[in-house]
Amino acid sequence: MPSAVIPGDEEYKDMLDQVTEMVEKYSPTHNILIAGDMNASIYRSRPRDIIFQDFITEHSLKMCNTQKDTS
Question: What superkingdom heads the lineage (predicted)?
Answer without folding.
Answer: Eukaryota
